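Let's study a protein:

___
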Amino acid sequence: MARKSGVAAPRISLTEPADLEPWTPGVGDVLTGDRIDGKRIDVLDLVGERLPDLELEECVVGTLRADGTDLRGFRIRDTVVEVLDAPVLRAQSGAWREVRIAGGRIGSAELYDSSFSAVEFVGMKLGFVNLRASVLTDVVFRDCVIDEVDIADARLQRVAFPGSTIREVAGANTRIEDVDLRGADLDRVERLDGLRGATIGGEQLVTLAPLLAAQAGYRVE
């Protein structure tokens, strides 16, 4: 059997929704289990709300504020969020499909047991991100700063990090296929064991040699 060569790139073809109805939600306009469809929203402020099973489909959101919001079971599809502001994001057991998050910051994100398909995160500052037992297929982290990610028991297929800075990726029993780190800045990485099986470049190997030797139990003198 011929050995597979090369790394398959993420397949993302999101087209920004058009012909949307402008909507300015007020207090109490968004409720648990609501489905928001076909809207253009300048500011969607959900801070501190309890909104499990909320759905967002074919929308463009200027700023999504979700600090401390209960978004368990959050489903977002065919949607562009220009800025996501969520120092604490609680959106476990969700489903993201054909989504672009074009900027913003997440301090601590509970996104475990979720699915991400054809999702792009751009220019974001990501603190601690819990992706345990999640499935990421065709996902790009572009020009992001990533402090710490936990991907224990997760599955990653066609995931790339072009222009992103990564500090720590941890996790056991992670399944990796076509994960590309060649465009990432790994100069300050402290831990990368969660991405064993990913593809790196020759120059990155030189940078990572001391870290890889330490993880393997070698002493370099």
Q: What stands out?
A: The chain has one domain: 30-216. The first strand starts at residue 21 and ends at 22. Helices lie at 202-216.
